[in-house]
Amino acid sequence: MGRSSIMGTSSILSSLQDAMHRSADALAGVMPWVLAIAVIFTVAALWPGQRCNADRPWWRNCGLVTDACYCFLMPLFAPYVRIGLLSAGATVIVLVIGGQRPDEYLLNGGGILGRLGFPAQLAVYVILSDFLLYWSHRLFHGSQLWRYHAVHHSATDVDWTTAYRSHPVNLWCGPVLVTTAMILLGIAPVVLAFWTPFDMLMAAFVHANLKWTLGPLKYVVASPVFHRWHHTYEACEKNYGSSLALWDVMFGTFFMPPGCLPVRYGVADGSVPEGFLLQLAYPFRAASSGDANAAAQRPTGAKA
After folding, report:
1. Measured between alpha carbons, how far apart are the two ends of the chain, in Å?
2. DSSP state of 173
3. I need a labelling partner for 42 at 20 to 30 A (CA). Which of 1, 144, 204, 235 fits?
4. Prediction pTM value
5. Element (H, E) at 119
6. What is the pLDDT of residues 146-185, one digit of tens each?
7. Residue 245 near residue 251 (C-beta atoms within 8 A)
8. Cα→Cα distances 60→55, 84, 161, Å
């Protein structure tokens, strides 16, 4: 059993080495979807009457260069973190329950959800992963993690490109960790591969500069206006749902005042610098300096 586990771990580590030679492939995989999303929201921006904030289209976004750096550089590193987490998690599980090698466990859907068919796994993944992301998001609004999430909130022009602006710690301890947990529970990789384009489109959609509320569906599905309120000074402790607004309705964090549209975005005290490298360093510099104003850097009403 021990030898089998070691062989399985070696196989995964071999895959990790392989992956290190495929960074260009990762970028090539992202590019078509980014271009498709750019085309969709460029067309939408041609109708100023549909914009939530009519002053500027996305290509005049003052943080566009910073967002582009996140968009094209983060995918080069995220797969390695996911492989490392999967390797560790699968090895521990197999050592405890036995019966398979770690790589077989992952590929064959060895978790409790692995026996479900594709449609059921997809439904469970969409609902359960969004539920976990809701609570992960709330944790990142707490005093210990806010400095990492503040990078995402630093955008003063919120548009579809803002979806890519996430500090690596926020990305790896949020979406990457959640998808890793879902795979370890038995969700097949093919389910993630199928749903990833929809995830990317949804993330861009809720950040888009559109005044769409989705009517009565606003209590179930996240919309651009729903999420743009989350990026404001007034309501950044509301509307945590990634794709579903349902969790905010259930847990009392839903905020969409009728007849009003969000206007001002960003971190209230303006403490997060603009620029990719400066933002990567910002959370660590804030922590090492023992910033006495840490509470002020958090959104009003955020839970400690």
Report:
1. 44
2. I
3. 235
4. 0.81
5. helix 118-139
6. 999 999 999 999 999 999 999 999 988 888 889 888 888 8
7. no
8. 10, 38, 11
